[in-house]
Each structure stands twice: as C-alpha cells, then as structure tokens.
Specification:
The two termini are 13 Å apart. The chain is an alpha/beta fold and 221 residues long. The longest helix has 25 residues. It is 58% helix and 12% strand.
Length: 221
C-alpha cells in the first residue's frame, strides 16, 4: 500500500490554523478522502496530559530545555500512536503543529537555536518530515490580538487555562514570527507560506490550491 500524505499546519496562535484545518478536512471529505486530524501538543491520552502541563499559565518554573523535551515526548508518542500508523495505512494525516513549531517557539522564541531542535527531531522522531506544510502568517499584531482574546474567552467559558505562551512579551513572538519566515525560506519545496491579513475564504483558497497540487503529485509517483 502506498504511504499516506502527511500535511501540517503551522503559525502563531491566532493565525487561524484551527479554522483552516477543519475547513481543509471538510474539503477532503467532500472529495472522497477520510483524513486523520490530530494536534500537537496533544492528540493522544499521554499527549493531552503533556499539553495541559505545557500550556497552563501556572507552569511558570518550566525551563526552556524542559519545555522542549516535553514537546518532543509528546511528538514521539503521537508519531508512534497516531501519525505513522495512519501513514502506513495510506491515509492523509492533518496535524495542527509539528516540529516547525518547536523550532519557532523553542528554537526562536526561547533562543535555543535550530540545531538542537533538528537534531532531537532526527533522534526522537526518526526524522519524519511532512509532505506539505501550510504556514499561516498574518501580521504579528493581528495574531497576538486574536490569540489573547480567544484564550481569555475560552478560559471564562470552560475554565480551561491554556494561556502560558500568551503571557510572553511581544519580543518573544517577534522571534517566533521571524523563525517561521526563516524556515519557509530554507524549505520552499515543503513549506507553502500563506502570508498577510487575508480573509478566511482567501486563506482556504490558497490552502486548497496547494493541497490539490500535492495530491496530484503524489498520485503521479
């Protein structure tokens, strides 16, 4: 059986990833596919426990290295439990965040650098690479405003606290944003950059175009 297709969505919180991954899944289903949706951190019972620790604003004493190690523990479990089995079964996997997020947030935002992130990915994740990464990059100001408003709303609504990263200074997010741009420039064959303060429909159109091209290419091989 041919290997499935691994598609990741990346970007700052507030970039619209959740909306777009759900719209992409609906589009794929309309065209006869049954994609597997997952997210990082999370997506497995173990991963959800790690997510709760990583994103809770009460986790104030977490060191950058411990934070990165937990991200990779979550990722290794997700690959073993969800992603690799689905790809081996020939399915399309849609993942909200992958190692690009760790390179951007821990490598860039926490200033740990790209080299350690890429080496840990090689060692702990068997260097599994997405076939296509959709990087949503509206302006930094728009992303931060959306993310902070959304998380405050969710906290009031459900009592769930996932605000730890939103408490960071704007300089942290500027480094994350710049690292994402660096990744896109370094890997143009894999990363499709959707940049600017576009409407939901405009972003979806660019995503569908990129995914359609990659699906055609995968069928031709």
């Amino acid at each position: 059986m041919p290997r499935g297709l691994f598609i990741t969505l990346e970007g700052l919180d507030g970039s619209g990833k959740t909306t777009q991954i759900n719209r992409l899944a609906a589009w794929l289903k309309k065209h006869g596919q049954q994609p597997i949706l997952t997210r990082q951190p999370g997506g497995t019972p173990t991963g959800d426990r790690i997510r709760a620790l990583l994103l809770d604003s009460r986790s104030t004493a977490l060191s950058p290295l411990a934070e990165m190690a937990l991200m990779f523990a979550d990722r290794a479990q997700a690959i073993a439990e969800v992603i690799q089995p689905a790809l081996d079964a020939g399915k399309i996997v849609l993942c909200d965040r992958f190692t690009d997020s760790t390179e951007a947030y821990q490598g860039g935002g926490r200033q740990l650098g790209s080299a350690v992130v890429l080496e840990l990915h090689r060692l702990l994740c068997s260097n599994l690479q997405p076939d296509l990464t959709l990087l949503l990059l509206p302006s930094l100001e728009v992303s931060l405003a959306r993310a902070r408003h959304r998380n405050q709303r969710e906290n009031k609504k459900s009592g769930q606290d996932e605000n730890r990263f939103e408490l960071e200074e704007d300089a942290f997010y500027r480094r994350v944003w710049e690292k994402y741009k660096e990744i896109a420039a370094r890997e143009p064959q894999r990363v499709v950059l959707v940049q600017g303060n576009l409407t939901i429909d405009e972003v979806h159109e660019q995503i569908v175009e990129a995914v359609s091209e990659r699906l055609l290419a995968s069928r031709a091989t």
